Amino acid sequence: MQHDENRLVFQDGQFTDDVWVDLPDDGPIPVEGPAIVTLVRLAGDDGEYFLHGGCRIGVRLRPEDRLGDLVPWMARLELIALNFEKFTDGRPYSAARLLRERMGYRGRLRATGEVLVDQYAAMRRCGFDSFVVAKGRALRSWQAARIEMSVRYQAPQESVLERRHARRAVLEVA
Amino acid sequence: MVSRVLTANHLASGDVVYLAADGWTPLLRDALIASDAAAEACLLGRAARDEEADIVVDPYLVEVEHSAGRIEAVHYRERFRARGPSVRPDLGKQALAGALA
Amino acid sequence: MSATVLEAPVGASVTPATYCYDAFDKQFVAERTAQFRDQVERRLAGLLTEEQFKPLRLMNGVYLQLHAYMLRVAIPYGTLSAVQLRRLADIAERFDKGYGHFTTRQNLQFNWPRLVEIPDILEQLAEVEMHAIQTSGNCIRNVTTDQWAGVAADEIMDPRPWCELLRQWSSLHPEFSFLPRKFKIAVTGSPVDRAAVATHDIGLRMKRDGEGRPGFEVLAGGGLGRTPILARTVRAFLPADELLAYVGAILRVYNRFGRRDNKFKARIKILVHEQGIEAFRAAVEAEYAAGEHAAEAALTRAELARIQAHFQPIGYEDDLPERDPGFDRAVFEDEVFAGWVRGNLVRHKVPGYAIVNISLKPVGGIPGDATAAQMRTVADLAERHGLGEIRVTHEQNLVLPHVRLRDVHAVWEALGEAGLATPNLGLISDIIACPGMDYCALATARSIPVAQAVARRFADLDRQRQIGDLKIKISGCINACGHHHVGHIGILGLEKKGVESYQITLGGDAGADAAIGKILGPGFAYDEITDAVETIVDTYLQGRNGPGETFLAFHARVGAAPFKEALYAAR
Q1: Within a 10 A sphere around the Cβ of A86, how many other Cβ atoms?
Q2: What residues of chain C lie within 8 A of the CB of A168, using their CB?
Q3: How far apart are CA C354 and CA C258, in angstroms?
Q4: CB C477 within 8 A of CB C447
Q5: Which CATH architecture has domain C432-568?
Q6: Which helix (H) or strand (E) holds C356?
Q7: Would you kindly state where each structural domain of chain C is located, as residue ranges?
Q8: How confident is the model at residue C251 (pLDDT cuts 50, 70, 90)?
Q9: Is the pLDDT of residue C2 over 70?
Q10: Are C129 and C21 within 8 A, CB to CB?
Q11: What is the CATH number of domain C159-310?
Q12: C448 interface with B at CB cutoff 8 Å
């Protein structure tokens, strides 16, 4: 199985080649993986194998897939890929937060599809920690972008509200 | 066959512009007029190149009527666009000296 | 009456009782400005396509309109300081064409900025704690409220601290920046709803429970546009400190399940309508119940207390009498002044003060437009006589919310010199009109010249006063920025067979008894619409049971029939 030459993965602060392979619904199952399958395949006939087998597995979700269907697999999944069909489709942001904050998912949370640098901060704050970037214009823009917001008003992650609260607490002690 | 000109907005300034023989012009009266499909394709080809080169945005063809050196867009929206706000004759292209001649 | 009584020098540091940025807020806007400059540079360098850049520029208030770019500057909940208004005047002169346009969402639009200069404009704005963040795009827009918030005598609470809390919470929200469609929140602190909350995606009505604790009735699913729907109640009473978490639950349900297949069915009103209010409410309550909100509620309480301190009225002169003899004398002696007072002055909650409403609808003028010189005049007057504060109304007028009664005459004289003393507030010539096809790329017809022609037709003030309370609202396309659905007389400009055509609706109401107007019949041509409006008004005047019966009451009593008869019988 081949890696996609047209994209890189940004995670842990650097660009790397992707070790994960997208498995189609009808292809053979690799012995060791790491492989990303659809929810359909995970819940289908091969499900038992994925649940108990030795390969590293991940799942790729469409925005309309139900997160609750992942529950039996949560301990096994090393990666969940949420697809941005267009970068203006905001549904994966909510799905990411639900996976992280409600369902306790701690593995890789990957953004795929139209993944642009201008949405990187929002994606990261919602819990994504892996970003598939297309080579070409998107990658050049990713490398050229200079500004990142350090101030944020909302949870998750330390918000201005919390920082103000912490300062008030210091003042009260002093 | 109707006549058409090619219009767009200049990316950096936002100005309404028309494709002329030597590039983009702010004035409709200086626009190149296409009267057949081949000429239109030629205008669209040049516009697409300048769109790709990030000089203009949103190019499209506009139907015009012209006679005796006068040129006017057929649709009222394009007539406002070629002139400026109807309620502020002091603003827009209509305020440029001789722009509407 | 003297203008020099207790006069503060212009430019003196008047600190208005509005929100002031702390270091975090300043850094946030500075970083966002730098980020947008970077985005513009990447666009010009070809690293962003127009398709990729467009949502980014929209989310920072930059449109590409009919003639040029347009920059929409946020005026959070319609509150401005004199310093800010003066800066807007400076920007209008330095970067634009010497004027600005106040909108139906309490914002200000510059119609001619160059893209390459917009980052510089944003820096100018940031210096006075302003920005253009989320004034467009499919995100949470500027939160709007009652233009008389904090000063109206009929108010339960000043809603602006909650608006400010929502402003901060919604700014660059990581989860809710790419919603199915735009999202508008309005808050009213008064039972007399001047914020038209039922026509918003979320409407919040401040309430107190049995024990006097503050909270909100939460409505959702309102909106105008091509499918006008009034919002429904989701929660009859929500304790105030649960506001952010609950609004977040509504937004999450909308973000996940709102329609994205069709732009025209993507607003939350369609989701609420298609699911039904019960199912929608159940989904919101389930989402809310599944979360842990105690910590956020505690933070909300602490933060609200901090913000509320900014809005504590300061600088009121204590123990002024209810009446001012000089003011009373001027009203008695000057009939023109008295007429303006009757129309444009509103009772203030503090004795000895008045709310001064400034009409931006001079007869024949462009509704909502103000020149840089006019902005400076209003800023000066606010500093001298108004505790440094100005409000923008959704009806496209301005307000000096705290003027001592004894200063009102001097303020009126100064306004008159600047062409700002038109005494037509709430009358037929106080027309809401969107920019329409004179500026807007989406418009299907012009709005402004229709407003001008109608105002000229009814220029006679005695006739306007005889007609009484009659709100005309004009939109230049189905998107309804001119709120035509809720105009007593609504006018919608469309294209029909290659020419402008105007459709009339009657009986709309934006107030506490919000109602959507009904289409009267076939449309009218550009040169017929003024006559049609006059026919409608004459029909009302001839048929009403005396001046006590308003246009709306008359319409409710007789229905559309007499209007149709008068308009279409002769056709």
Answers
A1: 12
A2: 302, 306
A3: 45
A4: no
A5: 2-Layer Sandwich (3.30)
A6: strand C353-358
A7: 23-127, 159-310, 325-417, 432-568
A8: very high
A9: no
A10: yes
A11: 3.30.413.10
A12: yes
**Interface test with chain C among A149, A168, A172, by most C beta carbons within 10 Å:** A149
Cα of A128 to nearest chain C Cα, Å: 11
How many residue contacts between B and C have a Cβ separation below 8 Å?
Answer: 70
Give the domain extent around A55.
Answer: 7-147
Phi (first) and psi of residue A157, to 5 degrees: 80, 155
Rounded distance, CA C463 to CA C452, Å? 17
Residues A79 and A77: their CA atoms lie apart, in Å, by: 6
Give the residue from C249, C253, C287 showing the smallest Cα distance to C271. C253
CATH of the domain at A112: 3.20.20.70
Query: pLDDT tens digits, residue range A18-45?
Result: 889 998 888 787 777 799 999 998 888 8
The CATH-assigned architecture of domain C23-127 is: Alpha-Beta Complex (3.90)
pLDDT band at residue C1 under the 50/70/90 scheme = very low
Cβ atoms of residues C223 and C201 within 8 Å: yes
Asked whether the beta carbons of C176 and A160 are under 8 A apart, the reply is: no
Whether the Cβ atoms of residue A126 and residue A150 lie closer than 8 Å to each other: no
Tally of domains within chain A: 1
| % of chain C exceeding 70 in pLDDT | 97
Distance CA B13, CA B32 (A): 22
Q: Which residue of A has its CA nearest to C255?
A: A91
Radius of gyration for chain A, computed over Cα atoms and rounded to the nearest angstrom: 18
Chains in contact with A, counting 3 or more C-beta pairs less than 8 Å apart as contact: C
Q: What are the C-alpha distances in Å from C221 to residues B7, B78, C159, C250, C269?
A: 39, 36, 21, 10, 4
Res. C12: pLDDT tops 60:
no
Alpha carbons A129 and A12: distance in angstroms, whole number: 7
pLDDT-wise least confident of A53-62, A155-164, C135-144, C502-511: A155-164
**How far does C570 lie from chain B, in Å, by closest CA?**
29
Interface contact flag, C113 B14, Cβ < 8 Å: yes
Beta bridge partners of residue C140, listed in sequence order = C183
User: What is d(CA A95, CA A32) in angstroms, rounded to the nearest whole number?
Assistant: 28
- In eight-state DSSP terms, residue C183 is B
Contact B76 C500 (CB under 8 A): yes
What's the pLDDT at C87?
Answer: 98
Length of chain B: 101
Nearest Cα of chain C lies from the Cα of A33 at a distance, in angstroms, of 32
Angle at which helices C118-127 and C23-44 cross, to 10°? 180
Give pLDDT tens digits for A80-139: 999 999 999 999 999 999 999 999 999 999 999 999 999 999 999 999 999 999 888 888
| Chain C adjacent subunits, 3+ CB pairs under 8 A | A, B
Peptide bond into A24 cis (omega under 30): no
DSSP assignment letter at C176 = S
The enclosing H or E element of C368 equals none
What residues of chain C, 478 to 507, have a C-beta less than 8 Å from chain B? 498-500
How many independent structural domains does chain B possess? Answer: 1
Which residue of A lies nearest to C299 if distances are taken between CA atoms? Answer: A161
Query: Do C and B touch (≥3 CB pairs < 8 Å)?
Result: yes
Q: Which residue segment(s) compose the domain that B79 sits in?
A: 3-95
A168 in contact with chain C, both atoms CB, cutoff 8 A = yes
Whether residue C347 lies within 8 A of chain A, CB to CB, comes out as no
Phi-psi region of C401 (alpha: psi -120 to 50; beta: other; left: phi over 0): alpha
How far is the C-alpha of A68 from the C-alpha of C523, rounded, in Å? 52
Q: Measured between beta carbons, which residues in chain C are less than 8 angstroms from residue A147?
A: 31, 34-35, 37-38
Task: Give me the CATH topology for the region C325-417.
Answer: Sulfite Reductase Hemoprotein; domain 2 (3.90.480)
Q: For residue C295, how many other CB atoms are within 10 A of its CB?
A: 12
SS3 (DSSP) at C123: helix
